[in-house]
Amino acid sequence: MSAATKTIAGTYHHAEHLEFPYVLPHRSVNDVAATSVVLIHGAFASHHEYSGVIESKILSKYHLILPDLHSDGLDISKGIDPFEISRVASLVSHLIRQRAKGGKAHLVGVSLGAHVVVATAAHAPDVIHGHSIFISGYNRFQPPPPVKLVAPYIFYGMSKLEDVLFKSNRTKSGETNDGSQAPSGICTMKLVREIGGAVFGHSNSGERLIGPTGIEARTCVVVATHFLSGDRIIHAQRLLEKMRGAEGEDRVHVLVQNKSMKHPWHVFEPELFATAVQAWIEGRGLREGFVPC
């Protein structure tokens, strides 16, 4: 049996694992809803980055599942180790089969979470059958070899700086505004290098798992093209080509950009993010500001 902790919104389920595949530690919100949506966080983060999305209540009619890939928010020793994209996809799909309504769910992911969504959809198409994909910030950087060598150290330093800033925003009790304990010290050089394999390389990439027939799920890929974002349209275009498959069929795969948004817009503009996710899931158009690219 897994331990569970009540939070202001939903329940936090601790890891049930000793043996692979195990049920990932995750936060569950609105368990009584009929349809599940899985929201996957970015690199060196946790489910807490979707706190604003949850608090907006825009997705309140859905059962929300928010896995922690690097830690369970309480114990950093419970992250996925090693962090291989195929292993992550196996665990996310196992979580959906065990916890989502009918063993299926809509998939939402930003940044590294977008890579995980792609890998999961390619690895286990059954868990998204009849459901949709919404991703943003999908980048596949291919820097020159000298830059690639120092990139892990840059990412490590940036993560530590973010951790310091995050700590400064905690309450005196060490809790976040959702009432649960915030993770700390998730980033390690080992994890940085493993995640780098998913973002830089091909052997640890979700794209590698996409077969010749592509991915059938209705998919929206968003590129945040604010000049401070860093997102690249070309990376999303190449992804969509693979998702459409060898025959190039249009299975309602949409690529849009928004020039006013920065890379982590789910954190900076959670209501806009939740509204866009809801619109896509429900088959409606995205709000003004999202344009085809």
From TrEMBL:
InterPro entries listed in its UniProt record: AB_hydrolase_1, AB_hydrolase_fold
Protein name as annotated: AB hydrolase-1 domain-containing protein
Domain AB hydrolase-1: 37-274
Signal peptide: none
SUPFAM superfamilies, A to Z: alpha/beta-Hydrolases
Highest rank taxon of the organism: Eukaryota
